[in-house]
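User: My collaborator sent over this chain with a note saying "see what the structure looks like." That's all I know about it. Can you take a look?
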Amino acid sequence: MSDVLVGIDPRELSVPALAWAADEAVRRGARLRLVVAVPPVHDGLPYAALAHHVALRNRAQSALVNAEDLVRALHDGLWTATELVDGVPAAVLRDRTPGAALAVVGSRRRGRVAEILGEGSVGVPLAARADCPVVVMREPEHTTVRPPLVVVGVDGSRDCRAAVSFAAAEASRREARLLAVWVWPRPLLSHGDESAGLAERRRLLAESVGGCAERYPDVAVEQMVVRGHPVEELTHASAEALAVVVGRRGRGGYTGMRLGSTVHGLLHHAECPVIAVPLSAAGGTDGTPPGPNGPGPARTVRPRQDDPPGSGVPRAPGARWKKKWSRDRRPDPRSRAAAARRSRTDPDPRPIHPQGPSRARTRGAER
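Assistant: Without extra context I'll predict from the sequence alone. Here is the result:
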C-alpha cells in the first residue's frame, strides 16, 4: 500500500497541508507518513555548529509530536509513521517519493528566486524532481462550492494526460466535478482563422479527456477553451476549486526544464492547492505505483553490461563505451618491449623528480 507523504516544517507547522494529507490518507485507505528533515548547519565554530544542530533536532522532534497530536485529533485511528532525519528537506522528501501515492508540503510564500535557490525551499525543487504527484498548499481548498470542483490544465502534451488521469481519480474520490481547461495564448500578431483554431483546440481537448467518462462514470467532466495567459486563467479558475492539477512540464518553458513555467506561476499565484503530476505517475494516479504488477506501463529495465550478445537484451551504452575504450587503449606489446630496452640503455639513471625533469635539473643547478 502506498503512503501519503507529508513534510513537516519545524519552524512553522503548516496545519492546512497536514490536514489535507490526513484527509487524503483516509480517502485512499493509506498510511500517513510524517517526515521532518533537519537541515545542515554551516556555523564556523564546531561547538557552535553542534549546539545549533542539537537545537534544531529538538525543535524538529517537538514539531513531529505536535503534528502527530493534530492528526490524532482529526482522525483517531489513522495509520501513521514518523521519521526524523538529517539532511536538506527537499532532498530528504524526494528520496522517499518512489512508490508513494503523493507528497504534500506547505508553502512559505517565498519569491521565485528564494524558492529556487534557497536551501530551505521545498515546494519548487520537490515538485520538479519527485517520483510521485506533489501537492503544494499555497491556499486552503474551497469546500463551500457545491458541487465541489477540481480543475486540470490541458495543453495536449504527454504530461497533461497524466494530470488528467490524476484529476479524474481525485474528483471521483471527492464526489466532485472535473473542469478541464485549455488556455490558448493570444498571439502578438493576429493571423489565420481563429474559428478554425478554436475548433481544433476543442477537438484536442476532447481527445485529452477522452476515456474519463468510461473510467469514472460518476464524474461530470466539463471542457473549456479560453484565450489568455495559462497562469492567469488557471489562477482565475482556482478561485473556487478544491485543487488545480497540472502536468510537471507541459509545453511551457524550454527543453531541459524539470518544471514547466505554468507550474512555477501557479505555485506563486493559485488560490487553492496546486498538484504537479509527473509523467511517470500516469499509470499510478489511483494510488498504485506503476509497474508490471500495477496499472500503467511497466518501468523500463536497464540492460546489464554482462548480458550476452544475441540474448535479446540491448547492451547498455556505457558497456559499449567501456569495451571500446579498453580495446583502443590497450598497450601495444611492441611499445612495452621498446620501453624496456630504453630503460636498460638509458645513460642517465637519475630518478625523475615528481614535479618534472626540467624542474629537477633547475633545482640541481641552483644548488
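A starting point for your reply to your collaborator: DSSP finds 13 helices and ten strands in the chain.
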